[in-house]
Amino acid sequence: MSHRDFKDALYAQFARIGHAFSSPKRIELLDLLSQSERTVEDLAGQAGAPLKNTSAHLRVLRQARLVETRRDGTRIFYRLADQPVAGFLRSFQALAHERLAEVEQVARLFLHGRDALQPVTLAELARRLRDGDATVIDVRPREEYEAGHIPGARSIPVAELRRRLKSLPKSRDIIAYCRGPYCVLSLDAITLLRKHGFRARRAEHGLPEWRLAGHRVASGAA
Q1: Domains of the chain from N-terminus onward
Q2: Which of 80, 131, 169, 176 counts the most CB atoms within 10 A of its CB?
Q3: Residue 38: count of CB within 10 angstroms of its CB
């Protein structure tokens, strides 16, 4: 193999990862899988994409060794291959946020436009959990909470929040977290909580960032 053949073969393999990340839907699927494993049907519903297209996207991600599968009877579950994939996904998103002004513009218009308060950082969230001076709620779907959650957080999916308001204390700050910096579930949650007189803030990041920062992650039902 010549020097040129070696370089061409090597960079062709690197490009497989680039190809996997070249589709907005594939990036979204990876983001969803960073929360918990899912079936193709669930992923299609969450991503708002046709089942056939979702299956095709998952084949590309699997060929790039970014996702793996397991079979449970007739059902096939997809999951991220490992934590380095989750880390690369978050670094990829952070780079886009830093380099592309449009990312900040979209985030500011939608997220910051609906919440003027500064989000709670991971460091503050960890401190307040340690001090026990705030109630932390996980507003993701229950299956995501059971797959992994911040220790001490209560599972209150945003779809159930309205009917469970009476279980929350108005004498304490409430911090809501969801899937990550661009997740709108916590934004919906704090909007509802503030409307009903609660002191509520959203976390700046979600479980993937908490895990990547080296914090302990719990699993199972509350």
Answers
A1: 3-86 (1.10.10.10), 111-212 (3.40.250.10)
A2: 176
A3: 21
